[in-house]
Design a protein that fits this description.
Layout (H helix, E strand, L loop, with lengths): L2 H15 L7 H9 L3 H24 L3 H9 L1 H18 L1 H14 L8 H17 L3 H27 L13 H12 L5 H14 L5 H31 L11 H47 L6 H16 L3 H26 L8 H24 L18 H14 L8
Helix pairs in contact: 1-11, 2-3, 2-9, 2-11, 3-4, 3-9, 3-10, 3-11, 3-14, 4-5, 5-12, 5-14, 6-12, 6-13, 7-12, 7-13, 8-11, 8-12, 12-13, 14-15, 15-16
């Protein structure tokens, strides 16, 4: 085992999962959870852990997109991957990077600047640096993540040693569900296909070409990433819990982390956080634009060129950004509640694809999870299917689990086993 490469890959994977925008969700979850903050964190981290597991599963399955399409079929695999790309690269993540930057970096320092001109400036910079990629962006991205993480760890240590206030009772009756929903909002589970490609390419270029050689490195690097995510997200959730009695209810997700930073590190801490978050969100948006435009160029066989894709992404992201951060999070929640369960189901089953050789199992489970997630989302947001609340694990946010299992069992029974691999 190449220990140095293992930690390098693990830190790189952690950096890919932990975007600046994601740090706004755990403190808000902790504030709502109060004394039940750890339960909320566990449900949140479960999604993050499955995302790390997904990297291992996809590389084990032959490589990212291929693994997805081999398990659920070419058509459904393309649908799932495209749905993930639309969320992570078009309608949710890029607009959220700009909105997060505005709420955390601009408003605390320049409250008079409206969102519209800032969003135009933000995406103009993204457009210019994506159309003509610059090595400056790579350099900034490489040093920003360590600075961001160092700052967050300092914040957590100070918050643990000097809590902002006493932890009060939970204000949410379903903190487990909220933890799962916050995990969906982080969207890391939808990013595993692209991240798996990056990790596998890195291992291949270093001379590890077979799964036997790659396995200990992948297992170790995903373990390192999961451990770091647990420490950072757990600490941030705890910080939020310490504000449950000290802060009022008028703060949104971004406002809460700014208020926590100001309370623990003063105005200087807010300025440092603002600069780092702004640059980190900028480089994240650049990466998302480039990957998304390339994906749709390949998907359309070149009919949608890379440059045309960048133009479309710029216009769409700028328009959605001006809805505001809270509105983007609110609108994204039901969409992610439908898309994430089949992704999570498929990722878990990919771990056992060399044991369960019936393709109907994967298709049936993904279909069952999708239909159940759609019904549950319609119930949670519109109250259309009250009987759905009787499903096992509904109050923990896993009401779709039994339908996924039933769908998988039916699919397995109706399909023939694949021949054994040579």
């Amino acid at each position: 085992m190449r220990t140095r490469q293992l930690f390098v890959s693990g830190f790189a994977l952690f950096a890919m999962f932990f975007g600046a925008g994601n740090l706004i969700f755990p403190p808000f979850l902790g504030k709502a959870g109060g004394q039940d903050w750890f339960l909320g964190f566990l449900c949140f981290f479960l999604v993050e852990f499955l995302a790390c597991t997904g990297i291992y599963a996809m590389i084990h399955g032959g490589g990212s997109i291929r693994a997805m399409e081999r398990s659920v079929g070419s058509g459904p695999g393309t649908v799932l991957n495209t749905a993930a790309i639309l969320c992570t690269g078009v309608f949710i993540a890029p607009p959220r990077t700009a909105a997060t930057t505005y709420e955390m970096a601009v408003r605390p320092l320049f409250d008079a600047l409206p969102l519209l001109p800032f969003s135009i400036l933000f995406f103009a910079v993204v457009f210019l640096l994506t159309i003509r990629p610059s090595r400056v962006v790579d350099i900034i991205g490489k040093f920003l993540t360590p600075v961001l993480i160092a700052g967050i760890l300092v914040l957590i240590v100070v918050g643990v040693l000097h809590p902002i206030g006493e932890i009060g009772p939970a204000t949410s009756p379903n903190i487990a569900q909220e933890g799962l929903a916050a995990g969906y909002q982080a969207m890391d589970i939808l990013s595993v296909a692209g991240f798996a490609i990056i990790i596998q390419d890195s291992l291949t270029q270093s001379g590890l070409t077979s799964w036997k050689e790659q396995r200990p490195q992948v297992l170790g690097s995903t373990g390192v990433a999961a451990a770091l995510l647990a420490v950072v997200y757990g600490g941030l959730t705890y910080l939020g819990a310490t504000t449950s009695t000290a802060f009022g209810d008028g703060l949104d997700q971004a406002g809460l982390i700014v208020a926590i930073t100001r309370a623990l590190l003063g105005q200087a801490g807010v300025v440092i956080l603002a600069v780092v978050v702004a640059l980190a969100c900028l480089t994240t948006a650049i990466g998302l634009f480039g990957a998304t435009a390339s994906y749709f160029q390949r998907l359309t066989g070149g009919r949608l060129s890379y440059r045309a894709g960048i133009v479309l992404l710029t216009v769409i992201s700028c328009a959605i950004c001006n809805l505001g951060l809270s509105a983007i999070i609110e609108l994204a929640s039901p969409v992610l509640s439908v898309i994430c369960p089949p992704f999570m189901t498929t990722v878990v089953l990919l771990l056992f694809q060399r044991i369960f050789r019936r393709p109907g199992l994967y298709k049936g489970a993904a279909l069952g999870a999708t239909l159940a997630a759609l019904v549950l989302t319609l119930q949670d947001y519109l109250g259309l299917f009250p009987l759905a609340q009787q499903l096992p694990f509904y109050h923990y946010g896993f009401g779709w689990l039994l339908p996924a299992a039933v769908g998988g069992a039916i699919g397995a029974a109706l399909s023939k086993p694949l021949p054994p691999e040579e």
